[in-house]
Write a structure and sequence with these properties.
CATH topology of the domain at 395-569: Rossmann fold
Distance between the termini: 52 Å
Helix content: 25-40%
Shape: globular
Structural class: alpha/beta
Number of helices: 21
Strand order of the largest sheet: 18-27-26-21-22
Length: 744
């Protein structure tokens, strides 16, 4: 419900000030048109005046009724900010790619469909805005943590790791919003704040879900073998997991908007929680923008959650908590009555409007003729250009993960776009003659009538490619998964086809979330497994490029692939990330879960081999303290706030050698392994770097790690501390450890 544009084209219909809507060659009136003499005397139209003064002037001219109308966004015109398939882009672990996608992304039905986090951004967004086909504020990216593998919207996120999600958020938002200082090219929005990762599971939906203080749940013994204690969203896990990507989005990405979520956190709706919105987002992180509700969230916490007794109280609670814009009609309907009853003041409404109108000013929406503004020269030529199409293909290639390659069965041998969607069949057909048989009527695969044709085709082919997996009928917004298996009889089809195949069988998986394909991993007749996620417009071509070796796979899994039996121990409603051994609760994500997996976080193979050598690394790092805290070191950790953290980082230098015969890109993943204890994860991603290395050559890579930010841990009270001892290791060289001792 939140995949829409925001207020930029929905309001300010006052004293002949109308926002631009262009249709064909005729342009409707737009705000502050210099040819309209009525605008001449308005200070808010003068670009020479500071934005703060312009905003104050505009709001000062509004009646209360007009102000209240501007608290809501119901227009919803323009392009949708789709988020499906972000996880495929995250699998590239390439932060420069994420920023490039934000700068030159792709339009609805065109370009990088379903990949990278939004469908209309930056260059193409401005081009479409200039043509009257889109607005300028987009509710993207989704940076929630992919906490549970069943979540239907996990495909929209950058994965399960907070550092990865945070870096994705910051880089993508920077690419989207541009680098012109306070001027915004497009306004991004990080959503859904916070601890939101359940849509509809086992009778619990997002409109009623509350992760609150501890309570005992008598679980269905057939589904869950033990009784569990549901944990609240603790201060510790808010600080080291759920809030991390949002903090990065605001502090580093300078995002223009944050969206609060439907759910409650510990009994309070996020859109009515002043501690979250006003204290954390606004005061601590210094959001320079507005807070918007997920669509109809204010109505949800009144009508569905019954959080307040009256609608006026709901409106007042939301505004006073720090909500600036309501996606829905609720505030427009009930705010004036709330003011009359003394529950909220007109000054509170003014404060909310300052935040939303300021973003509109920064977008240039009151600067007159759009074509005369920065980015005004962007037009049809900039939509779905050849360069954008090539980036769509490259993004899809980089996000594909090679999970298995038994006996080097891939790449396959071969005998030899306009802006459109390419299927895997079309992509493969560019390299080889194909025999295509549809083994299942649809993704549900409830019947086997078509199996015989697929089996017969496999028996004739030199190689068999099975494209299986999920789609939006299985996992989507408002639809969480019931299990982790291939739907219906897909597994049966895969096994029977592999048994009959004359040549190697390659399983290509399309999905957002993880799939338990243990059977295929263990089956020697299935030579290779490739995870493509939802790779978008150029996905079919990218898959074929990987299968035939035109591109070398370099993607890594941004989430853990669990076995099906894991689900019996973890209700989706249990928010705890850390394991609870006394309750047989195994914990979540690679950071806290030590049990068996199908494929681990960060797994991904290549067609070549890389060797790493440590060129240079520190053996110790000194942590200077602020003078008045010299005696506050206690136990085995010091507070980050007591350390002089500015520019306190360490540098690792690694030589990465490609010892194979094929050029390739490799992702270095650097993990921290803090001292044992209840505070910290088992290990934590602290840095990653993508490096391209030609065959038989070597590259030196420098990786910088900020000590306070990445080598700290969060205690049970939610306080971030630096342990006295912290060990770092480089993935795929587990025998090599760096020991850093803080020296005071």
């Amino acid at each position: 419900m939140d995949s829409t544009t925001t207020p930029s084209s929905s309001s300010l219909l006052i004293f002949l000030v109308v926002l631009a809507v262009v249709s064909g060659e005729a342009r409707d009136p737009f705000a502050c048109d210099p040819k309209d003499g009525a605008n001449a005397g308005f200070p808010f139209c003068r670009k020479s005046i500071g934005i703060g003064e312009r905003v104050k002037d505009l709001i000062g001219r509004l009646t209360l009724e007009e102000k209240v109308r501007l608290l809501v966004n119901q227009c919803r015109r323009g392009a949708k900010a789709g988020n499906k398939g972000v996880i495929t882009t995250a699998a590239s672990f390439n932060s420069s790619l994420w920023e490039a996608i934000g700068q030159v992304h792709f339009s609805t039905g065109l370009g990088l469909k379903y990949a990278g986090g939004a469908q209309v951004v930056s260059d193409e967004a401005r081009a479409m805005y200039n043509g009257g086909a889109a607005g300028l504020t987009f509710w993207s990216p989704n940076v929630n943590i992919f906490r549970d593998p069943r979540w239907g919207r996990g495909q929209e996120t950058p994965g399960e790791d907070p550092v990865l999600a945070g870096k994705y958020a910051a880089r993508y938002v920077r690419g989207l919003q541009g680098n012109a200082g306070d001027r915004l090219k497009v306004a991004a929005c990080c959503k859904h704040f916070t601890a939101y990762d359940l849509d509809n599971w086992n009778g619990v939906d997002r409109f009623h879900f509350d992760a609150r203080v501890m309570m005992t749940l008598n679980l269905n013994k057939n589904l869950f073998p033990c009784e569990l204690v549901l944990m609240s969203v603790s201060k510790q896990e808010m600080e080291d997991t759920f809030d991390v990507p949002f903090r990065s989005c605001v502090v580093e990405g300078k995002v223009a908007s944050v969206m609060c979520s439907y759910n409650q956190v510990n009994g309070v709706p996020t859109c009515a929680d002043p501690n979250l919105l006003r204290n954390t987002v606004r005061k601590q992180w210094h959001l320079n923008g507005y807070v918007v509700s997920d669509c109809d969230s204010v109505g949800v916490f009144y009508d569905n959650q019954h959080y307040t007794n009256t609608p006026e109280e709901a409106a007042a609670d939301a505004i006073k908590a720090g909500l600036d814009l309501d996606c829905g009609p609720f505030l427009a309907v009930h705010t004036q009555d709330a003011i009359k009853k003394g529950l909220v003041s007109e000054a509170d409404v003014d404060s909310a409007l300052v935040n939303t109108v300021t973003v509109q000013m920064r977008l240039g929406m009151f600067d007159g003729e759009p074509s005369a503004q920065p980015f005004g020269d962007l037009g049809p030529k900039d939509v779905c250009s050849p360069a954008h199409q090539e980036l769509a293909l490259e993004a899809a290639r980089q996000g594909i993960v090679l999970l298995k390659n038994h006996g080097h069965s891939l790449p396959l041998s071969t005998r030899r776009i306009p802006c459109e969607y390419t299927t895997p069949l079309q992509g493969i057909g560019r390299y080889s003659r194909t025999i295509h048989q549809k083994g299942c009527a649809d993704v549900a695969c409830s019947e086997d009538q078509l199996f015989a044709g697929a089996i017969d085709a496999a028996s004739q082919a030199d190689a068999t490619v099975l494209v299986m997996g999920l789609d939006q009928s299985i996992e989507a917004e408002a639809k969480d998964r019931a299990d982790l298996l291939l739907p219906g009889r897909q597994q049966e089809l895969v096994s029977k086809v592999a048994m009959a195949s004359r040549g190697p069988t390659v399983l290509v998986l399309m999905s957002g979330g993880p799939v338990d394909v243990s059977f295929a991993k263990k089956d020697p007749r299935i030579a290779a497994i490739v995870w493509a996620g939802y790779p978008g417009q150029a996905g079919g071509a990218a898959i074929a490029d990987i299968l035939f070796g035109v591109a070398n796979p370099g993607g890594k899994l941004p989430m853990t692939w669990y076995p099906q039996e894991y689900l019996s121990k973890v209700p989706m409603t249990t928010m705890a990330m850390r394991a609870i051994p006394s309750k047989a609760y195994p914990g979540r994500t690679y950071r806290f879960y030590k049990g068996p997996v199908v494929y681990r976080f960060g797994h991904g193979l290549s067609y070549t081999n890389f060797v790493h050598t440590i060129a240079q690394a520190p053996t110790a790092v000194a942590i200077p303290l602020h003078g008045h805290h010299n005696t506050t070191v206690s136990g085995k950790a010091i507070r980050v706030t007591h350390a002089k953290c500015n520019r306190l980082s360490i540098a690792l230098y690694l030589d990465v050698k490609n010892v194979g015969n094929k050029d390739g890109s490799h992702t270095l993943l650097v993990f921290s392994k803090p001292p044992a204890g209840h505070w910290a994860p088992h290990k934590q991603l602290v840095a990653f770097e993508k490096v391209h290395v030609a065959a038989r050559t070597q590259q030196r890579v420098q990786i910088n790690i900020h000590v306070c930010k990445y080598l700290s841990v969060v205690d049970r009270s939610g306080i971030r501390r630096i342990p006295w001892v912290n060990m770092v290791f480089i993935l795929v060289i587990p025998s090599i450890w760096f020991l850093f001792k803080q020296q005071l």
